[in-house]
Write a structure and sequence with these properties.
Length: 514
């Protein structure tokens, strides 16, 4: 299912990959836009709200245009449109920090824009085309490597992660847009577009290793994060690294894993960012320590955050399944260094999200509010849309994989699949590396719903905790999270990780030249 719209100088392509991307941008982006109408009423400049919303829709329009473009000139143009609109959105509050971080995002994304422009120039002068589909047929690695570099910049891969971390100063709807369904997804989308060329090449192996390195290093740096949105930002960078890893491997199974991660991450991460905005506006909680006791002060919000965190890390949700499929693809492709980083990073991701869940569910009976939690209907409706989407995609994943993801993979690799690698058995799924039966899926899904509810009804047992040398004086329970600030401080680790990642970028460019 591929169609071309040809005018005198432009080409647009409509296939299943671009259609899936457009659906993600349209549905998740629209949900965030509706959410922002309520968010901007509280503590923001209402005189500029209309301008804020208009720029958001301009941003979404540029994203939709980019994913349907097959012409490198148009891809460059819309790539830059997303850069300039994000510059405005990040600097929306006009304070010193917002202006500085918006300028950081602007100049850093210009590096990616220059890479896309150089790809178009080299493709036109060396191969006589600026159309991505024709470029893929030539197998030319130099323009492809430049596209990959542009994709990695836009996806804030190490060493470019600082621009996305700085975007956290923007209003939460902007964070949700940049981190979930739209801007950062340009990176995986472009890598998937050209992954067929990289399959089995040294360039593909280097891209896969670079993605795996970002996946692991970003999660390690997430361990030391105290701010809720900053923790989500690092986990976003890591998830994007996993998607680029899928494109680097380039096999049908890896692409299947990548599309799975792309779809589930868009919904789940947008959901968590919306909840971060609610916790900030309703409970004035921006850090994990301030989330302590949220289960007693705001049980609905606590349930939502816990469900979102489980959806990002544990079975039977799509992020877990995507990484499970990706591990199998890495084993089959014999990408052993990549496999090691992937397995290690997956374990760290569980620690990151379990720490978040622990802070949200911790609380005491004495902290229970006298009146029930009251949330705006706009907040409830938009977040429930995300919950329902996650639930449907999880319960019917195998049907979705075989009817949609398999077809998207066929469009990417330009051939029909005899078998997708995912076999359906009721609601369960069977892979060569294992299986999840229907009863297991339903049990795990039910536990994900029940865990926050159990946390609400659990209270600390009334008992005196007595430590030595206190003369029998009762000690109040004092629970706190461990943030590894002395050992895994992200500023210190960035000085180590950034040079290593820069070497990967140089190798990607070198593999394109050779």
């Amino acid at each position: 299912m591929v169609a071309y719209f040809h005018t005198e100088s432009t080409y647009f392509i409509v296939d299943r990959l671009s259609a899936v991307m457009a659906l993600i941008v349209g549905t998740v982006g629209s949900t965030i836009a509706v959410y922002s109408t309520r968010y901007m009423e509280e503590g923001e400049d209402l005189n500029r709200e209309n301008r804020f919303l208009s720029v958001i829709f301009l941003f979404l329009g540029a994203m939709n245009a980019l994913v349907f473009s097959d012409n490198l000139e148009w891809i460059f143009f819309f790539y830059e449109c997303t850069t300039f609109t994000s510059y405005y959105l990040i600097g929306y509050r006009r304070d010193e920090l917002s202006i500085r971080n918006s300028l950081l995002a602007l100049w850093m994304n210009q590096i990616g824009g220059i890479a896309i422009l150089l790809s178009a120039i080299s493709s036109a002068y060396i191969h006589g085309t600026i159309l991505v589909q024709e470029l893929i047929k030539t197998g030319a690695l130099l323009p492809i490597s430049l596209i990959v570099i542009g994709a990695m910049v836009k996806s804030a891969q190490v060493p470019f992660q600082s621009w996305l971390l700085g975007a956290m100063v923007a209003p939460t709807p902007v964070s949700a847009l940049l981190h979930s369904s739209t801007m950062v997804k340009i990176g995986p989308y472009l890598v998937f577009r050209v992954s067929d060329v990289m399959d089995g090449t040294t360039l593909g192996s280097v891209v896969a290793l670079a993605g795996a390195f970002t996946f692991t290093s970003a999660l390690v740096m997430a361990l030391s994060q105290i701010e809720f949105k900053r923790l989500l930002a690092y986990s976003t960078i890591a998830s994007l690294g996993a998607m680029i890893l899928c494109g680097g491997i380039g096999t049908p199974l890896a692409i299947t894993a990548g599309i799975t991660l792309l779809v589930f991450h868009a919904v789940s991460k947008a959901f968590l960012f919306l909840e971060a905005g609610i916790s900030e506006k309703e409970f004035h909680a921006k850090t994990l320590e301030e989330l302590f006791g949220l289960i007693t002060k705001g049980p609905i919000t606590a349930w939502m955050i816990t469900f979102g965190a489980i959806a990002m890390a544990l079975p039977p949700f799509g992020m877990f399944i995507g990484k499970w499929i990706l591990i199998q693809a890495a084993v089959i492709s014999k990408q052993y260094p990549t496999l090691f980083l992937l397995v290690f990073g997956s374990a760290v991701s569980v620690i990151v999200y379990m720490k978040l869940i622990g802070r949200v569910l911790a609380g005491r009976e004495t902290e229970r509010p006298r009146k029930s939690e009251s949330l705006s209907p706009t907040y409830l409706i938009t977040t429930l849309v995300c919950v329902i989407a996650i639930a449907i995609l999880t319960l019917f994943y195998t049907s979705f994989a075989n009817s949609v993801i398999e077809k998207v993979t066929e469009d990417i690799i330009h051939k029909s699949l005899i078998e997708s690698g995912i076999r359906e058995k009721g609601l369960g799924l069977i892979l060569n590396a294992g299986r999840i039966d229907s009863w297991q899926l339903l049990l795990l899904f039910s536990l994900a719903f029940a865990l926050p509810i159990l946390g609400y009804f659990h209270t600390w047992r009334k008992a005196d905790l007595v430590y030595e040398y206190t003369c029998g004086e009762p000690i109040e329970p004092n629970l706190g999270a461990y943030y590894f600030l002395d050992k895994l401080n992200d500023e210190h680790l960035s000085r180590i990780f950034n040079p290593i990642a820069s070497v990967f970028l140089l190798l990607i460019l070198l593999m394109g030249v050779l």
